[in-house]
Amino acid sequence: MDGSDCGRHQPHDVWFLAGTFGGQVKRACKVPGGRPIAVPVINHVGDRASCTAFMSGASGTVLFDGKVVAPEAYEGDSITVRGAQGNPVTGEERRFTATGCGLWVQLPPPAPGTHALKVRGRSGDFAIVVDYALTVAASAT
Q1: Containing domain of residue 51, as a range?
Q2: 8-state DSSP, 55
Q3: Which residues neighbour 9 within 8 Å (Cβ) at sequence distance 6 or greater?
Q4: Structural domain tally of the chain?
Q5: DSSP class of 140
Q6: Which pLDDT tens digit goes with each residue over 26-64?
């Protein structure tokens, strides 16, 4: 995933950036101006027990243009997942309820121009490294 699909299925009030299923990636993404950005540092979908275990070892760091941004912990919220055919979570089109947990960051709308976002997360043996090169438009599109 190189970021070329980062504009797909975005809501109008926030811009979501993707994490990974583990490993290291570099992505470039164009973001409309005026939108806050939300990104997972490290996250998990399962049941309450697996979230408790996952969060016991969860840690992460985020740098936005070289400045540290503290992540917020979500210990385990009930979520409804709507899967689309061929998606990497369910593999099929169906809806289910699960527990979602993790560390997340929400950034206020960035100024127009180019920005660097570096996300590092870990829980147990699972780790992610995501480097985003963001280009923020002068006005919302």
Answers
A1: 15-136
A2: H
A3: none
A4: 1
A5: -
A6: 999 999 999 999 999 999 999 999 999 999 999 999 999
